[in-house]
Amino acid sequence: QNYYILLILTDGQFTDIYDCIGAIVEASDYPMSIIIIGVGNADFTDMERLDADKKTLQHNGRKASRDIVQFVPFNKYISHPSALPAAVLAELPRQVEEYYRLRRITPYLQTLQ
């Protein structure tokens, strides 16, 4: 029972946002989350769209089964960097829980001895 996290650091937009949306919609069925950190002063409007907090991503008529992307603009946290980790990881617990719940999988809990 593995769960994967893809961390992307970018200083700009992806070149083909529609292919990217398609890949994210496909990936929403897999045990993974995507965290995107935007670095610099680029226009990150499309990255905000990938975060799908307001509207479920859709590609060629297929909707994402769940939201798997968290986008964080690094510059927003320059004046208070200690808040960056919380922002980066804010959606991860819900994304992991949602993946296992939708598949009726009980996460394996290992006890420390």
Kindly list the characteristics that best describe this protein.
113 residues, two-stranded antiparallel sheet, flat
Please give a structural write-up.
By secondary structure, the protein is of the alpha/beta class. The chain is 30% helix and 20% strand. The protein is built from 4 helices and 5 strands. The protein has helices spanning 17-27, 45-50, 84-89, 92-102; strands at 4-10, 32-38, 58-59, 62-63, 69-73. It has a 3-stranded parallel sheet with strand order 1-2-5.
Average pLDDT rating? 91
Measured as a percent range, the helix fraction is 25-40%
Q: Can you tell me the overall shape? A: flat
Output the strand order for the largest sheet: 1-2-5
| SSE succession | EHEHEEEHH
Low-confidence stretches are: none
Largest sheet: 3 strands, parallel
Terminal CA distance reads 21 Å
The counted number of beta strands is: 5
Structural class: alpha/beta
Blueprint of the fold:
Blueprint: E1 4-10, H1 17-27, E2 32-38, H2 45-50, E3 58-59, E4 62-63, E5 69-73, H3 84-89, H4 92-102
Parallel strand pairs: 1-2, 2-5
Antiparallel strand pairs: 3-4
